[in-house]
Amino acid sequence: MSPLKIKKGSTSHSAYDLRPSYSDTVERHTLAVLVENEPGVLARVIGLFAGRGYNIESLTVAEVDHQGHRSRITIVTTGTPQIIIQIKAQLGRIIDVHKVNDLTVEGPSVERELGLFKVAGKGEHRVEALRLADIFRANVVDSTLESFVFEITGTPEKIDAFADLMRPLGLQEVARTGVAALSRGAV
Amino acid sequence: MSKTMTGAKMVVQALIDQGVDVVFGYPGGAVLPIYDELFQQEKIKHVLVRHEQAAVHAAEGYARSTGKPGVALVTSGPGATNAVTGLTDALMDSIPIIVLTGQVPTFMIGSDAFQEADTVGITRPCTKHNWLVKDTEKLSATLHEAFHVALSGRPGPVLIDIPKDVQFATGTYTEARQVETHYNPQVKGDLAMITELAKAMETAKRPVFYTGGGVINSGPAASQLLRELVAATGFPITSTLMGLGAYPASGDNWLGMLGMHGLYEANMAMHDCDLMINIGARFDDRITGRIDAFSPRSKKAHIDIDASSINKVVHADFPILGDVGHVLEDLLNVWKARGRKTNTEGLAKWWGQIKEWRAVDCLKFTQQGKVIKPQYALERLEALTKKHDRYICTEVGQHQMWAAQYLGFEDPNRWMTSGGLGTMGYGFPASIGVQMAHPDALVINVAGEASWLMNMQELGTAMQYRLPVKQFILNNERLGMVRQWQELLHGERYSSSWSESLPDFVKLAEAFGAKGILCSDPDTLDDAIIEMLTHKGPVLFDCLVEKHENCFPMIPSGKPHNEMLLGDASTKDAIQAGGAVLV
Predict the structure, then answer these.
(1) Is residue B224 within 8 angstroms of chain A, CB to CB?
(2) How far B331 CA sits from the closest chain A CA (Å)?
(3) Which ranges carry the ACT domain (chain A) (predicted)?
(4) Can you tell me the distance from the alpha carbon of B378 to that of B371, in angstroms, rounded to the nearest whole number?
(5) Cβ-based neighbour number of residue B41 at 10 Å
(6) Domains of chain A (ranges plus CATH)?
């Protein structure tokens, strides 16, 4: 019998890879969320995290396809494996969300963040800051006789390390973009 | 051939094209152009409610009793904020409704204008999706997409916020078939996993079907397939509050409702089963009780249209993502093709065990003396209305649980109750929506006096549209469920849980021009119910019942299924400190 007249179709959201391991370890995952660039779409994503009590470690968003009107939101979040699965499923329910990719589990990926560091100082400190910036391949994007602004890109860990080194040398202000990430390889 | 028209006209045209015949609403400044268009046509009836919350609940009642989307139309600001409870209710129970709100003109948005509220901001977490339409050219396409989103996948409420200047401006009308959408949730389940489940069904010794609102939402075909599957396998079946009627209460394999106030045999079967087949239910906390002691020895299959429901609280050994109707059809076909096998020996033993649990007769009560027991009132209501073309709504509380226990539902879409959100004040406006959809049917709202008072103003609506809804109030002059918890949990300190200064319900009915009936005597109850049924218009039936009756069976907070309370004798110290924090 085939009495059903329900429209057929499919989405990329599947439950079959949802196999929770019941582990209590908190994991850090980087999620790439491709969304329709509509007003309020970021509020929907952030509201979901706030409303259901999920963590956001970092979040970046920009339109990546102007023609197709698509934005890519990169979210770094933490939680037990079960929570991470739930976060992905909940993101998948948002109508404006086209695709959710978990870069942490879907093979190798690259993560980069950009940081701007204002360091003020004179004499030895100033020389040392410049020398370390060189080692970290940071660029000087602004300078006065008493200060530098360094631009540095890299993994969040590299930027953390740079911040640790700059702190005793007169670190005044930091701006970081949060993580942008892509999977490695052709697809 | 493109048609040019005003935004307000587009709204009405889109509703007509989507097959809408009734809109529940309340006018105001920001929706006047739409009301002007409604005035000038005859295809859509408008029902003027007395409060916007009621418009949304009425739309829910319409949707649940028909399977079609319900529509509500309210103004900006307070109109929209009053709709929030109804939206949240529909979201929790997965009810497809479309709420249209007026908004201040686009050039005034953000200026704190009169009756301005950030409606899409406020309703973002309580809708499946919402839209603020700032361009008349996009209005009709958005309206059509809204219907698609509300009805596809897991159904839910959607809201469209329409600024007044967008209603006045003209644009091109887009037909529904021209609208493209990327939202097409998967409806077919994975055949390999369905086959795995069919195999497990062949060997299971103690299987149970645990069904929910998803079966109802999937449409009548899903209920039909479910009945076929149950009859063919001979497995026992229980259902959540939301799923009542998908399998008939008179069916041989019916165990009754499960959960916090579910039947003993249903909860015991859930606890002791070795294969649990969840069809369109979501392991709600009212169902599972203590989660780490929930059905400890069973393999669990979970059929659901929403990926986020699967593995949310309970691990699924057989996760099947898809529409219940499609999956049941495939499951039935696969199981038949594999030779229609079941473990007959195991099943016979299992039914023997279930028979013993049934013998406990957990719903038994004794009606004696001159005070009506609420259970007796419902038992008589059931006996006297069973043969009618009947729809039942409820409010929220003890009466709701008793209604679920003592009334039998033979078909889907006959039972409208606020399950997830537990909204007092839901039932009366919902009954109005049901009666609008089924003018000749018997529509009864089983209520408590406290819940009923929360939307009593709708008596005006019922009278204006001559809707013969029967309000069957089990009046114990208490907030019965609150009182019961205070008795069990808070040392019998009844903090604010009784209603003083209740109105004379008969006079109240008469003040609106409706009929009021008071009954306090078990001997005259039948006659009074018959009087209610034979009266042509709305009736307010004030049934004075036992004031301190508790609702049993009950799984206390923090307890597993096999530790049910069956009656007052077993309640002492039943809820311990750990369970007291739970609701």
Answers:
(1) yes
(2) 12
(3) 30-105
(4) 14
(5) 12
(6) 27-102 (3.30.70.260), 110-183 (3.30.70.1150)
> Which is catalytic among the residues B92, B481, B554, B564?
B481
pLDDT of residue A21: 42
Contact B409, B400 (CB under 8 A): no
SS3 A148: strand
* A10 closest CB neighbour out of B184, B224, B225: B184
**B416 phi, psi to nearest 5 deg:** -120, 110
Look up residue A62 and give its two tokens: 């920009």
Strand order in the sheet with B470-475: B415-416, B390-394, B442-448, B470-475, B539-544, B515-519
ipTM of the complex: 0.88
Q: Above 80 in pLDDT, residue A162?
A: yes
Residues of chain B predicted below pLDDT 70: 1, 568-581, 583
pLDDT at B6: 98
Cis-peptide into B553, omega within 30 deg: yes
Residue B189: its pLDDT value, please?
A: 97
The answer to whether B96 faces chain A, any CB pair under 8 Å, is no
User: In whole angstroms, how far apart are CA B578 and each of B498, B574, B583?
Assistant: 27, 11, 11
CB-based burial of residue A177 (10 Å sphere; 0-12 exposed, 13-18 middle, 19+ buried)? middle
Distance CA B166, CA B41 (A): 20
Residue B417 near residue B444 (C-beta atoms within 8 A): no
Residue A15: predicted pLDDT: 38
Say how far residue B180 (Cα) sits from the centre of its chain. 31
pLDDT in tens, B549-566: 999 999 987 788 888 898
Percent helix, strand, coil in chain B (nearest 5)?
45, 20, 40
SS3 B100: strand
Contact B445, B495 (CB under 8 A): no
pTM score, two decimals?
Answer: 0.93
Report pLDDT for A23.
Answer: 72
